[in-house]
Amino acid sequence: MNVAIYLPLLLALPLTLTAGWLAARGTPGLIARGLTGSAFVAAVSSTWSLVLLALTLLDDLPPLSALDDHPTLELPEPVPGPVALIAALLLAWGAVRLVRDIHLRTSTHRRLRAAGTPQDGLVVADWSAPLAVAVPGRPGHLLVTSGILRLLDTDERRVLFAHEHAHLAHRHHRLVALTGAAAALNPLLIPVRTTVAYLVERWADEDAAAVVGDRELTAKAVARAALATVGPGPKAALGMHGGAVVNRVRALIAPSPEPRRGRLLGPSLLVAGCLGATAVATAEFVALARAWL
User: Fold this and answer.
1) Which of the listed residues 3, 27, 45, 259 has the most CB atoms within 10 Å of its CB?
2) Measured between alpha carbons, how far is 31 from 190 in angstroms, rounded to an integer?
3) In whole angstroms, how far apart are CA 131 and each of 123, 192, 252?
4) Could you tell me which of 130, 91, 101, 128 has the C-alpha nearest to residue 226?
5) TM segments (predicted)?
């Protein structure tokens, strides 16, 4: 088994290094989808490589172990034992991380849905914390608090509802969940997960600006919600999750970005590289297994 089996483990690096550059220069929806698909393929490919590497440990178990010293057989050597063992440990670690990620998301959604019964797709909770979130489901609904409603004026509330409705309409939770799972399986993809979380907020910002017809008003609503969520406590009003707010406000003040599909050339080449390396590694493993069996 040659270098092809190791390539998928490293091809996530170019995606990680370029994710921020792509996010700053492309249409949020287009780049978010492209990065999510690329991260998913990279994670599956790297996991499959770990599976193939870990399976080579089987040659140390009977009856295959008896063939190692057979005087008349010249069997191809699999990967070194320590490499296969490390692959097995990484595979187990990734499985644990994935289960934790899924559990956290499902338990969070369960708690949000338990906050109240939607009326016309909306739950208003009498909480002082400024919170607004799109709760996925069939059907999904919006959860807002009295704290965020008191904070924003009538026009800014229109921005709020348009922003959260965009999350539901475009099923942003699926993109975030897929990149979260990809990062759990391959930690090199954690920056991609962060970038996609930022991009879906930018995507919802652009939709909200289009609905209300005022980019400056949208920027003002985003900035006001950011000021309200400084310090400890919930930061889910208009997607306020950290320092990316400044970049979002700047993007809203600037003209609306133009779609440029050429920006996805790099991720597309990475996907092709992952699939090609995975196919070669799988073929080599099958040839190795036939020789041993």
Assistant:
1) 45
2) 16
3) 11, 25, 21
4) 130
5) 6-24, 36-58, 78-99, 269-292
Torsion sign across C-alpha atoms 65, 69, 74, 76: positive
Rounded CA-CA distance 68/89 in Å is 24
Q: For residue 268, which phi and psi values (nearest 5 degrees)? A: -65, -40
Task: Specify burial of residue 77 (Cβ count, 10 A radius: 0-12, 13-18, 19+).
Answer: exposed
Query: How far is Cα 166 from Cα 175, in angstroms, rounded to an integer?
Result: 13
166: left (phi over 0), alpha (psi -120 to 50) or beta: alpha
Enter the tokens of residue 33.
Answer: 């989808």
CA 248/CA 116 separation, integer angstroms = 31
Collect all residues with Cβ–Cβ distance below 8 Å to 96 and sequence separation of at least 6.
none
Residue corresponding to tokens 């939770």:
173
Burial class (CB in 10 A: 0-12, 13-18, 19+), 216: exposed
* DSSP structural state of residue 119: B
Phi/psi of residue 126, nearest 5 degrees: -85, 70
Written as one letter, the residue type at 262 is G
Could you tell me the pLDDT band of residue 229, with boundaries at 50, 70 and 90? Answer: low
Q: Could you tell me which residues are beta bridge partners of residue 125?
A: 145
Q: Note the pLDDT tens digit of each residue in 43-74.
A: 999 999 999 888 887 655 454 444 455 444 44
Distance CA 160, CA 156 (A): 6
Is the pTM here over 0.90, yes or no?
Answer: no
Q: For the segment 8-33, what is each residue's pLDDT rounded down to a tens digit?
A: 888 899 999 999 888 888 899 999 99
